[in-house]
Structures are given as structure tokens and as C-alpha cells.
């Protein structure tokens, strides 16, 4: 069963070994002796306000269902759940099974001036699901029953899914017929194909399969003013691409109900390889050269020295890891070493040749391969988010911030992001452990994905939210100062809306606002996300 106050399936439990706890105490500070008792689920259910929606055959006003869709997976959402801080909640939840039922719900919302917030996987870490305090009733449209493969065209390799289909269901239904989408974000267990499109998601093996914008071929958008069908063309020069209006739109235009994606036949071979490089200079030069060679690799993921040290410290099996550390040091990869995970996917002949060429290139930079760690990474590739649960239980908070920038700024921005967080927490006399990896690499530049761990402050929601907001603002400012994007893969939501406006500029933001107003003239769709445009009748509670 999915946890109500943490990440993932409650049968999966992450643990911290003694070495990891010692490392955290040194680098992130010692937590307070006793954390406050977590709030109970019943505490929230008894606080659900009376619904303001009329009876409707597709809508439930059940308290548990309303609370379930009120929060995502951002750090403030975790704080609310753990501290007992009751968030604003929608007045009702609908569970449509067809586009026609979504159309019926939007027509009712448009006629009665209800706010609409679509929900599916609930994995947003950027405030996409935050419910405003409003005079208008709020309806959550839960798309999780729209979870089937609707059509597979094997000639064109196009598959159409209900937008609420989760990652495991996408892959299970495709693999049963010999195909894969190949989109594997870390939230794969719960995130959905529709959510991937409207937040411009990127999967771990995007080097082979592409980001979601390369996969998204067409679909159906139910907007307040009507239905827009997006046809599938292999290519077109007939004006601006309609798909681009939907990609990254974050439910501001309407509800994406059907998604057609470009799929691929299952590969003959796939493997992952752990390779260490002696320092960041060598590692960055090596991977930049590798990605610019355009070898048929499926993944490159480069951890800086801080993250490499952290990953090895948290791996457990101290004796075995100690042996690896000594072996790497003997081979020239001591303190400051960086861990590269390389994936290859395809037919056996092509992948064997790609791996041979990649290893020859990396050898020029002092690379050392540790074969056993690659398969281990693959085995645990979706378990990273579970570590936040273990950290909280030991008195630590964790959050992530990601961006992307051209190669000349990658190192400077990576270091500036980590330092900005240290400075922000230093203002409270506290430490933060910051570490980073490049999760998606391009010939032009790279994404930068940083994780921050600090000792949870006593006092519940307010002091911890204040620290989060200060560090988040500082890191976001560093990103903008170095020419980075407001988001590479998590989307904008509410949390990054200010950075979005600074990145795009007033002319572009006004154009986006006009587009939203055309599709949604009464501004009922997910207000306050992507654009900072809350009306006078709405406000936010922190």
C-alpha cells in the first residue's frame, strides 16, 4: 500500500547504516535528540472542511479521497504531513474513466465557476497540486482510472494510452506485445504518461529514447472551451506544432486525457556499467567528449566527488566498499573521484561496439571500471526517493533542485548551487550536506541535479519551511545568475513560477498568459501554477 506520509510502497523500507549516520552527523550536523511525534492520518481527516460542491454522479466528497489528492511530494508537502499542518483541500474528487466524462466535468466546472486541479500520480515536487484558498469550490479530477493502452499501431510504432497510466502499467502493457516506451524517471513507480507530457519529463535513459517531447506524438486535450485533437504526423511544416502548446502546460490549458507516444521494440541487450574517474576535471571532459561523439548509449550519469563519497558511504557492506576504495586508490582514483554510470541498450553487436569505443575513450582520462556496481545501480534505480523516509526518521530533511545549462557553465553552476545552500543554512548556524550529479547529458550542455540534506529543526512546520524557502530562493538565484533554466525535468508548478518569469521575460510570459486565457477564459484550470496569476479571490497558505 502507498504511504500516506512519505514516499512509495510501505513494504519497501530504506535504512541508514552506521557509516552513513556518522557521515551525516559530520557533514549535515547532529539532529535534535527527539523529533516531535508525527501527526496521524485521522488528524487530517477530522480537519477536512465541509464540501461546497453540489451532488454529482462522478464526484465524491469523501474526506479521505479529498485529503489524498491535496498534496504532492514536495518538501513542504512532506512537512505538512509530518507536522500535522492541514493544507487547503479540494471540495470533491472525480474519477472519470473516459474523455467524455472529463468533458462533462469541465462543462460543469465552466458553467459553475469551479476551480479544477487534475491529479494522477501525485508525484509533483514543485507544487503542481497545491490547492488555493478560494471563494470558488475546487474540484480535483483524478485520472488514475484512465490507465489502459487504448491502441497500438505496430506499423507506425505508436501507442495511445489513457493519460492516467502509470509507468509500470505503461511498460507492462507494451512489453506484453514486445515494445517499450523507455521513459524511466525516478518517480517511475507512480508518475503517469499524462503527467510526463504536461511537465516535460525526462527519463533516466533519455540518451537512447529521448525526453518525453521526442516521444509525445499526439493526443486529446479537453479544455474549458472545447476539445482539441492533436494529430500524429511523422513531421510537419504546417505552422507551429500543437504539441508544444501542451508540453509543459501543467494543466493550465485543460486536461490531457489521451496520449499517443512513439514506442520502440524491446532491445536484445541492456547493461549498466560503473566507471570511476580520478577527479571532476577529467570526468567532465570525458563525458562531454563521449556525448558529443553521439555513440548509441542509453544513459550517462555522472556524480561529483561529494555524491560519489555519499553513495559509497550509504551503500552498506563496509568491508566490500573498503576493498573497492583501496582498489580505486591504487588505480589513481582516490579522494575526489567521480562515479559515472553508463548504460547501453540495443542489439548485441551494436552495444558491444559502443561499449568498446566508450571504454577506450574513457581510458584516456584515467577511468577505472568496477563491474559489480553497475548491476547494483540498476537493481536500485527507483529506490532513491525512499531514502527520504529513512532520513526523516533519523532527524534529517532532504530536498532536491535541478536545472540545465550549457557546458561552459556546468562546473561553475554546480559549485554555486551547493555553496548557495551552505550559505543559506549558515545564516542559521547550521550545516547542509550538498551533493550533485549530471543526470542527463547533451552535446550542448547538461542537466545538474543537486541533493541537500540537513538536520530537521525543532518546532514543526514554520521554522523548517522558513529554512527551506531561504535555501531554495538562494539556489534558484544562483541558477538564474549562471544562465540555467528554472527546471530541466520537474516542471514549474507553484514553487518555480517566479524563476520561470525571470527566465522567459515579460513578452513571452504575456504570450503564455494570453494562450491560457483563450483556452480557459474563466481561469478555472490549476491557477497559480506555471504563471504567477492568482486572482484577487484566491490566495495561498504556506
Top keywords for this entry?
five-stranded antiparallel β-sheet, 20 strands, Alpha-Beta Plaits, about 35% helix, seven-stranded antiparallel β-sheet, single chain, 20 helices, about 550 residues, alpha+beta
Characterization of this structure:
This protein has 542 residues and is of the alpha+beta class. It has a domain at 269-380: Alpha-Beta Plaits. The chain has 20 helices and 20 strands. The protein has helices at 18-27, 41-45, 63-68, 75-83, 99-112, 167-175, 193-198, 206-209, 212-215, 242-246, 280-292, 305-313, 318-330, 348-363, 373-379, 387-393, 410-426, 461-481, 497-504, 506-519; strands at residues 59-60, 92-94, 115-119, 133-134, 138-142, 149-153, 158-162, 179-180, 216-223, 226-230, 255-262, 264-265, 269-277, 299-303, 338-346, 368-369, 396-406, 433-438, 445-455, 538-539. It starts with 17 loop residues before the first helix and ends with a strand. The mean pLDDT is 96.
Amino acid at each position: 500500500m502507498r504511504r500516506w506520509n512519505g514516499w512509495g510502497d510501505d513494504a519497501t523500507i530504506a535504512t541508514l547504516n552506521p557509516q552513513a549516520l556518522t557521515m551525516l552527523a559530520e557533514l549535515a550536523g547532529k539532529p535534535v535528540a527527539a523529533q516531535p511525534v508525527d501527526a496521524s492520518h485521522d488528524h487530517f481527516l477530522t480537519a477536512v472542511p465541509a464540501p461546497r460542491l453540489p451532488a454529482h454522479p462522478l464526484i465524491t466528497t469523501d474526506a479521505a479521497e479529498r485529503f489524498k489528492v491535496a498534496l504532492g511530494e514536495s518538501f513542504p508537502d512532506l512537512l505538512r504531513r509530518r507536522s500535522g499542518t492541514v493544507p487547503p483541500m479540494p471540495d470533491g474528487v472525480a474519477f472519470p474513466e473516459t474523455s467524455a466524462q472529463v468533458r462533462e466535468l469541465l462543462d460543469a466546472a465552466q458553467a459553475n465557476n469551479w476551480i479544477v486541479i487534475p491529479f494522477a500520480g501525485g508525484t509533483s515536487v514543485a507544487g503542481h497540486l497545491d490547492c488555493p484558498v478560494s471563494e470558488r469550490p475546487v474540484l480535483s479530477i483524478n485520472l488514475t482510472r484512465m490507465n489502459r493502452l487504448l491502441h497500438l499501431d505496430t506499423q507506425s510504432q505508436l501507442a495511445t494510452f489513457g493519460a492516467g497510466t502509470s509507468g509500470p502499467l505503461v511498460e507492462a502493457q507494451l512489453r506484453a506485445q514486445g515494445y517499450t516506451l523507455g521513459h524511466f524517471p525516478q518517480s517511475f513507480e507512480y508518475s503517469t504518461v499524462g503527467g510526463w507530457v504536461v511537465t516535460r519529463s525526462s527519463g533516466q535513459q533519455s540518451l537512447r529514447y529521448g525526453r518525453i517531447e521526442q516521444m509525445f506524438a499526439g493526443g486529446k486535450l479537453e479544455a474549458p472551451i472545447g476539445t482539441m485533437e492533436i494529430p500524429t504526423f511523422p513531421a510537419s511544416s504546417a505552422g507551429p506544432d500543437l504539441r508544444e502548446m501542451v508540453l509543459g502546460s501543467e494543466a493550465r490549458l485543460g486536461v490531457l486525457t489521451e496520449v499517443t507516444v512513439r514506442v520502440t521494440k524491446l532491445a536484445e541487450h541492456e547493461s549498466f556499467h560503473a566507471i570511476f574517474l580520478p577527479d571532476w576535471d577529467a570526468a567532465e571532459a570525458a563525458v562531454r567528449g563521449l556525448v558529443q561523439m553521439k555513440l548509441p548509449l542509453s544513459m550517462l550519469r555522472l556524480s561529483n566527488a561529494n555524491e560519489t563519497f555519499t553513495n559509497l558511504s550509504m551503500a552498506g557492506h563496509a568491508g566490500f566498499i573498503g576493498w573497492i576504495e583501496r582498489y580505486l586508490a591504487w588505480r589513481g582514483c582516490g579522494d575526489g573521484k567521480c562515479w559515472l554510470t553508463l548504460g547501453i541498450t540495443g542489439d548485441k553487436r551494436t552495444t558491444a561496439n559502443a561499449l568498446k569505443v566508450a571504454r577506450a575513450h574513457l581510458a584516456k582520462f584515467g577511468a577505472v571500471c568496477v563491474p559489480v556496481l553497475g548491476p547494483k545501480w540498476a537493481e536500485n534505480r527507483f529506490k532513491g526517493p525512499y531514502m527520504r523516509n529513512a532520513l526523516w526518521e533519523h532527524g534529517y530533511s532532504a530536498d532536491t533542485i535541478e536545472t540545465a545549462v550549457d557546458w561552459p557553465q556546468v562546473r561553475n553552476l554546480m559549485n554555486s548551487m551547493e555553496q548557495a545552500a551552505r550559505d543559506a543554512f549558515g545564516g542559521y548556524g547550521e550545516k547542509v550536506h550538498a551533493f550533485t550529479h549530471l543526470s542527463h547529458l547533451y552535446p550542448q550542455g547538461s542537466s545538474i541535479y543537486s541533493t541537500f540534506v540537513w538536520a530537521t529543526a525543532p518546532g514543526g512546520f514554520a521554522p523548517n519551511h522558513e529554512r527551506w524557502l531561504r535555501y531554495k530562493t538562494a539556489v534558484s538565484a544562483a541558477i538564474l545568475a549562471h544562465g540555467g533554466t528554472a527546471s530541466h525535468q520537474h516542471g514549474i508548478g507553484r514553487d518555480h513560477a517566479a524563476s520561470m518569469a525571470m527566465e522567459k521575460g515579460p513578452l513571452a510570459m504575456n504570450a503564455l498568459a494570453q494562450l491560457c486565457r483563450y483556452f480557459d477564459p474563466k481561469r478555472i484550470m490549476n491557477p497559480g501554477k506555471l504563471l504567477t496569476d492568482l486572482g484577487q479571490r484566491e490566495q495561498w497558505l504556506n
